Amino acid sequence: MTESWPTSPEEARRLQERLRDQVVTEDRLGPVRAVAGADAHYAPVQGLTWAAAVIATFENLELEESVLACQRTAFPYVSGLLSFREAPTMLDALARLSRTPDLLLVDGQGIAHPRRLGLASHVGLLADIPTIGVAKTRLVGRYEEPGPARGAWSPLLHRREVVGAVLRTRPGTRPLFVSPGHRVGLSTAIDLVLRCTPRFRLSEPIRLADRLSREHAP
DNA sequence: GCGACAG
DNA sequence: ATCTTGTCGC
């Protein structure tokens, strides 16, 4: 499944161009009961990448299962090519879950990407599961600052296209950059992310995954 | 040519 | 992402 994984940035960009049309940006998901969150961290000294995947109940966002995966970091960090660095380990973690989640929230962009294939879209495509990109900062696109109330959002535009939403998940904090990953439309993505982010700035599944991977990275 | 640039 | 303490504010 990870055979012929790109080695160079040029090769990676070519693969993105070849896969971009396979990403589905319309709702193709069933009832959401189990929501997963995925995040990765690095241990530079050991040259390792740690990825965590958790599953929480969509209803109360309580942790149900958490797994970890670790691999040697094999691709450099290049803006726009993050998936080639994190996806292998993230997919490893997802495969360790006892069941397939109904939805996956990924710490990174979905289609709000130069070639419409951010980490969330790439992982969703390879695992064939509905995903949403939930990033803390912008990669591409222009936008107007969303209102101060929780739930306020403004479109993220890139090359005349709406590629995501800048969403205020909590008053007094910086907004999140939400974009369809795979098999989830933008409006549904916004709704789902809000439901998964009832209290803090970050979505609960991602917070749980972030905490877990961070504990095992040092 | 000059900035911008997920994690 | 990672390197890093205290500190201001709700």
Rg, Å, rounded: 16 Å
- How do the strands line up in the largest sheet? 3-2-1-4-5-8-7-6
Average pLDDT, to the nearest integer?
A: 96
Q: Can you tell me the CATH architecture?
A: 2-Layer Sandwich
CATH class: Alpha Beta
* SSE sequence, one letter per element: HEEEHEHEEEEHH
Helix content: 25-40%
Instruction: Look at the helices and sheets and give the structural class.
Output: alpha+beta
Per CATH, the superfamily is archaeoglobus fulgidus dsm 4304 superfamily
- Uncertain ranges: none
Annotation field: number of helices: 5
Say how many strands there are: 8
Proportion of beta-strand residues = 25-35%
* Oligomeric grouping of the chains: single chain
If you consult CATH, what is the topology? archaeoglobus fulgidus dsm 4304 fold
The shape is globular
- Structurally, how many domains make up the residues? 1
Q: What key phrases describe this protein's structure?
A:
eight-stranded mixed beta sheet, DNA-binding, globular, 8 strands, archaeoglobus fulgidus dsm 4304 fold, 218 residues, alpha+beta, 5 helices
What's this model, at a glance?
This protein is of the alpha+beta class and 218 residues long. 49% of the residues are buried. The chain has helices spanning 9-19, 83-95, 119-127, 186-195, 204-216; strands at residues 34-43, 48-57, 63-72, 103-106, 131-135, 153-158, 161-167, 176-182.
Fold and architecture overview:
- The protein has 218 residues and is α+β, with helices and mostly antiparallel strands.
- The protein has one domain: archaeoglobus fulgidus dsm 4304 superfamily (archaeoglobus fulgidus dsm 4304 fold, 2-Layer Sandwich).
- The chain is built from five helices and eight strands, in the order αβββαβαββββαα.
- The chain has an eight-stranded mixed sheet with strand order 3-2-1-4-5-8-7-6, with helices on both faces.
- A hairpin with a 5-residue loop joins strand 2 and strand 3 (63-72).
- Helix 2 (83-95) crosses helix 3 (119-127).
- It is globular and about 45 Å long.
- The two termini are 28 Å apart.
- It binds two DNA strands through strand 1 and helix 2.
